[in-house]
Structure formats: structure tokens, C-alpha cells
């Protein structure tokens, strides 16, 4: 039986990218002669190298899955894309068996070396330690590791839930694994306290260009409690850039936001509980901090919940000590 996965929808493709460390995708068409010529080579590589959770080979029919083809700007068939941790790392256009064979076997060797060294990046909280929640935007890597965690300042949090660093953890949320969080008295997600609003001040260790944010929220993921007490997913988010400190709630209401975003119910991926928030990239250039104001939740409850945030963009120069404060002063804070 073939080990190659035939992609049936955009959500299916997202699921595959989230469940395997390396994914190889063959974008093809039934009418494409070169696609048929290289297909046996691809199938042989799939048969030899496929490993559950580590290397997955997929085929994407560009006529049937136009949304996926357009999102990755596929203009010629066949085109082979290679993803690592959900992010595209290599693209091979045309029926080039030698290039395809070399690229895939190199990745397979890297995966084998990582496994032998015990460095898989996995944790006990799920099937993979490095977790994005959704497909990374093309050409923009995950830059969450550029957050200055010592400078995080969050307002209106329920102290019985996870600490601030839980929000930026690289691991799969425990709620998706169907089990309790790792050892410790706290859970690995954040909830608001007295009402549905939260204020999240996130400083960076470098000057960044912020392209988009993945927000993961799994309201019923803890599997307990009264259904009337189920927290809400965030609905309205306001973003503020280059602040030297967190904003108060009254101050935020009176301060023009860099961008305001409304997350619709259809934006949440049903498998991962993640919504992709795309920012107006031109407004998020050369930033040293971002404040995310969770204005309200999607429903009638009194609390909101966020399991993970992942940030995507470009990293610039390392921020010198005191530079953030200076920027804030220049903006009249």
C-alpha cells in the first residue's frame, strides 16, 4: 500500500503539516506529462523514507485543490515543496528526479541524526515539541524566540492558570493531547480574570518586522467545569507597537491602535483551535515591542482563553539596553 498522503482539502494539508516534522508535497495535475514521468520516483522515495510523525509525502492535485496551489504560488507542474516544522524550506520546479532525490534524502539524514542524538524537539505535552498551530506564512519564519520573556507584562490574568511564558511555549498545547498539562500545579494556558479583557505587553530582543500572529484558543480543552463557565475565544484584538511599557485598559481605549482585528468563528481551525491573524505588514516594520489588547470574546461569557501565540516575520538588529525606553519617549509616552 502506498504511504503517500493524497491531500483532500486545505484543512487536511494544515493537519498534515502540524503532525509531521518534515512534509514533502508534490503539486501535480492529471493532464501533466512530466508529472506522470516523475511520479514513480516520488512514490519510491515515499515508500523508502516515510516515517510517521517525522517524514510525510503528500500529493496535491492543483485542479482539485486550487486554494492550496494559489496560497503557495504554484505556477508550474510539477512543483515539489519541502516543509520543516510547517515552514517551506525548499522548492523544486519541474520534473528533476536527481534534485528531488538529493533534497529529500538530505532531510531524511538530518531527521535520522536528530533522532539518534535524542534531539527531536518533542515534549511530553503532545506529538511534537515545536508546534505552530497553522501553516507558517510563506517566506516568514517563526520569530517567537525573539521575545524578551523577562519583560513580559500581562494584565487581568487568572493566577490559577499558566504563567506568562506558557503563552509562548513551543510545545503542542496539552488540551489538544487530551491530557492534563505537564507536572506542576498550573495549566499551560492563560485565562482572563475579572472580565473578558486581557492586556499583553510583549517586548523583543531585536528590532523586528512582524508579519502575522497565530492565536490558539481551546475553550473546552480542559475537559472539566460547568459548561456555563467555559471561557471564550478572543474576538476583537487591538495591536499597539513600540510601547515602552504596558497600557492600562482605560489608556488603551483612548489610544489609537496600530491595527484592530476581528477574528471570525470561521477563522478558527477546527483541528488545532488556531486562527491566523494577518497584520498590515507596512505598519509593523522596525518594532521593538507589541501590545495586544484582547477587547472581548466571542460569546456571552466573562472570561477569555489563549493557549498559544506564535509570531512570524523578520528579525533585525539586536536591541541595545535602553533602546526600547528611548523609542517610547520619542513617541510622547
From TrEMBL:
Domain PITH, chain residue ranges per copy: 132-331
Superkingdom in the source lineage: Eukaryota
Record InterPro entries: Galactose-bd-like_sf, PITH_dom, PITH_dom_sf, Thioredoxin-like_sf, Thioredoxin_CS, Thioredoxin_domain
Keywords assigned: Disulfide bond
Location of the Thioredoxin domain: 1-109
Region (Disordered): 163-188
CDD domains in alphabetical order: TRX_family
Family membership: Belongs to the thioredoxin family.
Listed name of the protein: Thioredoxin
Taxonomic placement: Eukaryota, Fungi, Dikarya, Ascomycota, Pezizomycotina
Amino acid at each position: 500500500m502506498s504511504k503517500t498522503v493524497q491531500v483532500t482539502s486545505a484543512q487536511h494539508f494544515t493537519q498534515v503539516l502540524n503532525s509531521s516534522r518534515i512534509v514533502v508535497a508534490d503539486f501535480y495535475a492529471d493532464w501533466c506529462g512530466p508529472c506522470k514521468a516523475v511520479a514513480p520516483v516520488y512514490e519510491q522515495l515515499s515508500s523508502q523514507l516515510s516515517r510517521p510523525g517525522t517524514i510525510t509525502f503528500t500529493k496535491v492535485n492543483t485542479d482539485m485543490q486550487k486554494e492550496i496551489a494559489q496560497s503557495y504560488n504554484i505556477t508550474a507542474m510539477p512543483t515539489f515543496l519541502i516543509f520543516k516544522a510547517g515552514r517551506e524550506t525548499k522548492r523544486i520546479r519541474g520534473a528533476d528526479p536527481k534534485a528531488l532525490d538529493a533534497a529529500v534524502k538530505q532531510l531524511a539524514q538530518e531527521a535520522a541524526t536528530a533522532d539518534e542524538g535524542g534531539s527531536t524537539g518533542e515534549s511530553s505535552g503532545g506529538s511534537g515539541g515545536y508546534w505552530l498551530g497553522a501553516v507558517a506564512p510563506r517566506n516568514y519564519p517563526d520569530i517567537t524566540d525573539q521575545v524578551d520573556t523577562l519583560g513580559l507584562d500581562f494584565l487581568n490574568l487568572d493566577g490559577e492558570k499558566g504563567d506568562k511564558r506558557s503563552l509562548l511555549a513551543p510545545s503542542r498545547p496539552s488540551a489538544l493531547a487530551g491530557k492534563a498539562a505537564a507536572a506542576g500545579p498550573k495549566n499551560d494556558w492563560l485565562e482572563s480574570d475579572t472580565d473578558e479583557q486581557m492586556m499583553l505587553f510583549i517586548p523583543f530582543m531585536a528590532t523586528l518586522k512582524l508579519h502575522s500572529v497565530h492565536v490558539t484558543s481551546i475553550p473546552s480543552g480542559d475537559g472539566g467545569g460547568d459548561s456555563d463557565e467555559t471561557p471564550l475565544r478572543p474576538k476583537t484584538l487591538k495591536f499597539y507597537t513600540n510601547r515602552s511599557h504596558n497600557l492600562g485598559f482605560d489608556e488603551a481605549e483612548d489610544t489609537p491602535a496600530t491595527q484592530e482585528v476581528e477574528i471570525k468563528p470561521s477563522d478558527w481551525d477546527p483541528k488545532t483551535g488556531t486562527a491566523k491573524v494577518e497584520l498590515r505588514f507596512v505598519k509593523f516594520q522596525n518594532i521593538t515591542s507589541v501590545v495586544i489588547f484582547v477587547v472581548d470574546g466571542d460569546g456571552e461569557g466573562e472570561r477569555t482563553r489563549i493557549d498559544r501565540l506564535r509570531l512570524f516575520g523578520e528579525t533585525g538588529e539586536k536591541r541595545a539596553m535602553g533602546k526600547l525606553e528611548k523609542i517610547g519617549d520619542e513617541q510622547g509616552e
